[in-house]
Amino acid sequence: MKKKWFYRMLLSYSPILLFLVLVLILFFYVKWTSETKVRIQNTNDLFASHVVSVLDSSMKSIEEFVLQQMLTDEKITEYLNGTAPIPPYAMFELTERLADIRTMFPLAGDVYIHKLSSSEVISNNGLLKLGDTFADNAFLTAAIESGGAARWSSPRAYQLYQADPSADVLSLVKPLPITSAVPKGYVVVNVQLPSIQRALLTVNTDASGYLLLADADGSAMFQEHTPPQSEWGISTVRSSYTGWSLSVGIPESEQKLMSVFLDGWTLPALITILLSILVLTYVTHRNYKPIEEIMIRIDRYALRRSLQLGKGNKHNEFQFISTALDNLMEKSNEYEAKHKDDLIIRRRYWFNELIGGGFPLTNEEWESEAAELGIPHSFASTVVLVTVLDNREQFSGDYNQRDQTLFKFVVQGVLEEICRNHGVEVWSEWKEADQLCAIVYFGEPNNEARMLDIADQLKEWVAANLQFTVSLYIGTTANEVDDIRGSYREAMQAGQYRALHGYNRIYAASDWKLNVQGDLYAHLHTAKGIIKLVRGADPTWIDQLDRLFGDIRRDRLSREQTAEVVNYMFFSLEKEMNDMPEELVAVWVEPLRQYTPSSILAKELIADIQSGMSELLHRLVESLQSWRDRQPQFTPVEQIVAYLQDHYSSPDISLDHLSDMFGLAPRVVSKLFKASTGERFVDYVMNLRMTEAKRLLTSTNLPVQSIGEQVGYTQVISFIRTFKKSEGTTPGEYRKLHAGESP
């Protein structure tokens, strides 16, 4: 090859390269400019929305907390409704409550309450009279005349005392009581403007952009950096809650820098073109070298072969290349023959890819691959059928590896024979040791009845001719490659019901939809209660365990959800053991080592899982009772438990009361009670009271106050708070939800 070919290659590529580079640069400039502006705008919008959301959340939290305190605090209500002068201690309690509000919220400033009847102002600093040293009289008077403020005020100067320096705040005024149409007073909440400014300054430290916060009247509350001249760099978000608006943008200096860069694209384009020419020359020269080297080696090899054969220095490069190509084709044919021997491996590979959802081939590629594998290329009206050997543990124990392989081969052959008798094609592979997956090609819609018939024939044949049974899971109809994975997953989901309904059955996805009818949290709560009963050696745990698994069957929980309940029971056992004496923990270790969660959940059926848990809990209760028999100090505890069950409704029940009754120190009573029952004294009494309260709420029409008194609460507020903490709802709401029921 002569040198002129190098120049021809180089010159033939150059015009195309120059044109493409120029077009790409122009396109890049236009596209990058537009997308840069859009992204900057979107980023500013998102940043502004987030900052406004954080400000609104902070201001709402302050307002909602203050309103909640005004609604629920009995001391504040008594102060507003009272006519007598407020005692010093009551005034101190009110100032402490107002001071707590300021402590809880970093943005909050002074909070004070104005009582109309006495013209008093109680702040977090003390009690004042209007007209004395109270410096915020003008703002308070204006707010009272307007009936309070619907939203936060604009920034204003604020002084509590005449001698105090003024501070910039934003204020919110609400009439008291909140729910009354005729106010008896007002509460004023102040937020420090410098705190908001410091928060915005901290937020803008990383962004380093233009930021402007304006109030509802448009007055600036905070500004950082000079605003950009172009409007596209600014995003403004207005708060529907405070009426404030936040403007965010890139700094003017950065916007000018971008403009200079965007407008000065010509020089970079020329530099790029020049670099492309240099790179083209270098690459062409570099690519030419291997070709030249190959031709030189061909010439040398051909010359050497000619001299060896006595043909002088005459040689033909093209003949040499032709011979090399012939050898290459021959090797390729040998490889193709070996490749065909690997069809079985390829079939299994593609089958697993289809089932797993990782199929990478296009329709055209799959048509070629399917034709070579000898299977249909179209998945129209196909169904995934999963055949699972029942009781795998027993199957593995009854037969050796050779017999297991033979039986699985028989099951697969029978399935293919049944499908041929029905005039359909099937592609089956053993995906797991006990799981035969098959893709059945029907090619026409409405194939549910035929699929069920095929599955039923296979199930009946195995049960009649072999010493074991199989369960069959049927997926939904698939029409595309991507639907195969979904059909397989739905078949396996339907198969989860085998744990509930047993072996030698057909589970079709169309009939066995996963539809949990109950509340998983309720099952977890029941499981926790069972462990509490076991910890207290209460024999009713047996009935509760039967009830738990009965509810699991009734609500049709899947095997995975059942496993969550079982694991939660083990978790509750571990928590109970943390508070048990070391001697008792040592007694429980051996049963828990023998009955582990994995060993119990290895069972395939729910009944077997229930049996395993029952055996474990029986062992634990027996160990606990044996340990208790060796502990003489538990006799007083049993007397205390019996006393509490008879007198829990007494409001005088306490550790001191029990100490006097049984002649033990309060700390000793608490420690013995916890070690024996697994519960704290206060929790045990609360559970007794709440159980009786729930019974009275659902079976009687007594007022909530009367029920609270009957179960030991003299104050109805204390009863309601305790009930809501225990049950997550108020007594009135519980009565509505469970009317006619008994707990």
In a few lines, what is going on in this structure?
This protein is 62% helix and 12% strand.
Fraction of residues in β-strands: 5-15%
Number of strands: 15
Q: Gyration radius, to the nearest Å?
A: 42 Å
Percentage of helical residues?
A: 55-70%
Q: What summary fits the major beta sheet? A: 6 strands, antiparallel
Q: Flag low-confidence runs.
A: none
Shape: flat
Structural class, by secondary structure, is alpha+beta
Task: Write down the overall mean pLDDT.
Answer: 78
Strand order, largest beta sheet: 3-2-1-6-5-4
Quote the distance from N terminus to C terminus: 98 Å
Total of DSSP H or I helical runs spanning 4+ residues: 28
Structure commentary:
The chain has about 750 residues and is of the alpha+beta class. It is built from 28 helices and 15 strands. The strands form 3 sheets. A 6-stranded antiparallel sheet has the order 3-2-1-6-5-4. Strands 12-13-11-14-15 form a 5-stranded mixed sheet, sandwiched between helices. The chain has a 4-stranded antiparallel sheet with strand order 8-7-10-9, covered by helices on one side. Strand 4 (about 155-160) and strand 5 (about 165-175) form a beta hairpin. The N and C termini lie far apart (about 100 Å).
